[in-house]
Hints:
The complex is a heterodimer. By secondary structure, chain A is an all-beta fold. Chain A is built from no helices and eleven strands. In chain A, the strands form two sheets. In chain A, strands 2, 4, 5, 6, 9, 10 and 11 form a seven-stranded mixed beta sheet that branches. Chain B starts with a strand and ends with a strand. The interface between A and B is medium-sized, with 25 and 26 residues.
Amino acid sequence: DGGITQSPKYLFRKEGQNVTLSCEQNLNHDAMYWYRQDPGQGLRLIYYSQIVNDFQKGDIAEGYSVSREKKESFPLTVTSAQKNPTAFYLCASSIGGGARNEQFFGPGTRLTVL
Amino acid sequence: AQSVSQHNHHVILSEAASLELGCNYSYGGTVNLFWYVQYPGQHLQLLLKYFSGDPLVKGIKGFEAEFIKSKFSFNLRKPSVQWSDTAEYFCAVNAYSGNTPLVFGKGTRLSVIA
């Protein structure tokens, strides 16, 4: 069953702690993306990667970090420097980074920082 | 840089009513346009897309959208909504070519009541 998995579905952390969100895809897609979704704000791009070992900052990269060591995995670390980390985080992938390629989305992880 | 405006934050319709959700974009060049839908508890999924050619595009579940270049608009329409259309709808845009990522609007929440 091909798709994108994000784990866990809900995550709670104490303020000041780093936390890593998992994103795995078995679609053999080259490009992967991380978005943050807040009520009334739509989706905002955090980081994206068009190929293994390469990634670019999106519009709201401050306080986040990523790695892309494997094609199927694109973990996102929310660091203590992120001022307002409580949000719904969506991972997506596409067959390539080209402009016309449909993005497929995972189920999301809801992070709550206490 | 591109930007997307969705003017309706929340739309409430009765079943069988007609739907039109507005989407306007800001970009100086040629664009690709997308509508994504997020049903309650489900993954974000592609509803329809426009790259070139016939400005009236048809998508899944009876939805269609019309690209009006002179108005920088890509409004989503459905002649008769159903309760199952209750969801959040996102318009997105990127540059026609190259590897630019999608820019999403803030979304419109549609509630269909019986």
